[in-house]
Every structure is written in structure tokens, then in C-alpha cells.
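tool_call: predict_structure(chain=1)
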Amino acid sequence: MTADVLFTVDAFAEPGLLPRLLQPFAKRDLTPDHMLARREGEMLRVELGLHAMPAEMVHLVAGNLGQVVGVMRVTETRREALRAAA
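tool_result:
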């Protein structure tokens, strides 16, 4: 089973943050389909989206993202939930 997932990460804008956020995907042989980073003052908001991500890995990756140094919050949104709300 797969899921379309959007991870949103709020973290302190620090050098090296973006490659650290990609590590949880790389170690599971996953490549995000899109990544968007926006600086908001001293914080950085990063969105990482994957289409057809193995469903059993969603919570594992979210947990690993939350352990990255500088990360304050991680939210995961399944794309089906976004379509239903629209």
C-alpha cells in the first residue's frame, strides 16, 4: 500500500539543515518528488512531498525528521485528506 504524503517541517534556518532533512529519505532509498524551502525570519519552513510513498514508512520518516537538529515541528498530511477538505 502507498500514500501521497506532504511533510511540513519548521526549523531554525541553519547551514546544513536541508541535507539533514533529506537523510531520512535517502537511508530508505526514497527520493522526494518535490521540496520547497522558505525562510521566515530565523525559521525555515520546508515542504517535502512524495507520491506513492510506502505507507509503512510514513511515520518512520516523520519521526526521523523530528529528530533532526534544529527541527521544531513536523506535520504530515496525506494528499487524500487535502483533496477531501477542498
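agent: The chain has one domain: 2-85. Proceeding to next step.
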